[in-house]
Structures are given as structure tokens and as C-alpha cells.
Design brief:
By secondary structure, the protein is α/β, with parallel strands linked by helices. The chain is built from eight helices and ten strands.
Length: about 220
């Protein structure tokens, strides 16, 4: 079993990912979805957490060998960036959703502004990618501060066309430990969902706004 499949199984086993193709969730955006992810739960399962953070570190080493520091998104990516940076022996920081209104008014924490201005090569760590908007905002903050953002790494990506388009337009590389297709195929293999629901799940991935995949 490779890292992508093992991570998918871990996410399913710990309940960090729920698949309900016949009883959809409703996201905050109003989108009806057969899947709900809460990857923060990975922090509460030490054995699975160790595998996932090691997989993140390995992916960074393979995809971004010149990386000099990891930056977590606030707040979901912070812990993962910290643990993976520890494994890799790299500096770590994080980017606030907005600058502080007190103290030094920092938006970027952990790594000095001078290091970023010098073109430090960094990778942004996120727990999951849906449409990609928030993580690309983080990338922009780091780029504006002078960092050379090599790319983004996530634990899980939905693989939505909108996200792929946004990353392409921003010229930002995305790597993920596991993805939607691996997850649903793993779920079918272990009996967490009916294999007959796979086409319906893929239809959601391809066009989340189209609800024709929902079983009436």
C-alpha cells in the first residue's frame, strides 16, 4: 500500500472523512456534497498522525528538494507544518488570515521578514484543498513579503476543476499526499461505500454545483 492509499484509509478509519453519497452534507457555501472532511482529527490519532506527517515530509523532499522552510495556513495547516518541519529539520512559520492589530502587527510568524526578503524557498502546508482560494491567499502574502514559494502541499485534495484552474492561473504547483479519487476507491475497497456510487461521486468532483448526482 502506497502513502496515498494508506492516508486515505487512515482518514476514513479515524472519521476525518465522511462519505454519504445518498445523504449529502451541505457546506457553508450552500453546495450539496457527498463528502465532509475534518482533517484536524488526524492530530488526535498518534499512529496515523505519524504516518501522515512522515508522508508530508517525504512528499516535500521529493517534490520540493530545495525547500528551506515550511509555512502552515491558519489555522488548519499550522500543526502539520510544524511536525513535518521537525521531521525535515527545517524552519517553520505560519501566515495569519490577517495582520495582528497589536504588537508588531505581524501577519507572517515564525520566520524573520529578512529571510523571506532574501528569497527564501518555502512550501505552504494545508490540510485540504477544495477550491484553493484560501491557500492561494497565503501564497500571495508570502510572495509579497519576498519569499520564493515553491508550491503547496496538502494532506488531501478534492481535485476540483476550479482549484486546478486557480493554481494554474497563479502559476503555483500543488502536491497532495492523497486525493479524492484514491479516497473513494479505497472506501469502496474496504466496504465503506457501495462501488456503484463511484460514478456519482466523480460527477460531484467534476461539477459540485450540479446536483444531478444526488439520488432522489
Amino acid at each position: 500500500m502506497n502513502n496515498a492509499e494508506q492516508t486515505a484509509i487512515d482518514l476514513l478509519s479515524m472519521g476525518a472523512v465522511f462519505l454519504r453519497p445518498r445523504e449529502p452534507f451541505t457546506w457553508a457555501s450552500g453546495i450539496r456534497s457527498p463528502i465532509y472532511c475534518d482533517n484536524r482529527l488526524t492530530l488526535g490519532f498518534p499512529e496515523a498522525r505519524a504516518r501522515i506527517e512522515t508522508a508530508i515530509a517525504q512528499k516535500v523532499s521529493e517534490a520540493y528538494p530545495d525547500c528551506e522552510a515550511l509555512f502552515g495556513t491558519a489555522t488548519a495547516g499550522i500543526a502539520h507544518a510544524a511536525i513535518a518541519a521537525h521531521i525535515l529539520g527545517l524552519p517553520m512559520g505560519y501566515v495569519r488570515s490577517s495582520a495582528k492589530d497589536h504588537g508588531r502587527g505581524n501577519q507572517i510568524e515564525g520566520v524573520t521578514e529578512g529571510a523571506l526578503t532574501a528569497g527564501m524557498k518555502v512550501v505552504v502546508v494545508e490540510d485540504l484543498i477544495s477550491t484553493g482560494g484560501s491557500v492561494l491567499d497565503t501564497v500571495k502574502v508570502l510572495q509579497d513579503a519576498g519569499a520564493n514559494v515553491l508550491g503547496v502541499i496538502s494532506i488531501f485534495t478534492y481535485g476540483m476543476k476550479k482549484a486546478k484552474r486557480r493554481f494554474a492561473e497563479a502559476h503555483v504547483r500543488l502536491e497532495s499526499v492523497t486525493d479524492f479519487d484514491t479516497l473513494i476507491e479505497s472506501a469502496a475497497r474496504i466496504g465503506a461505500i457501495d462501488a456503484g456510487d463511484l460514478p456519482r461521486l466523480r460527477a460531484f468532483r467534476d461539477n459540485p454545483e450540479d446536483t444531478s448526482w444526488i439520488v432522489s
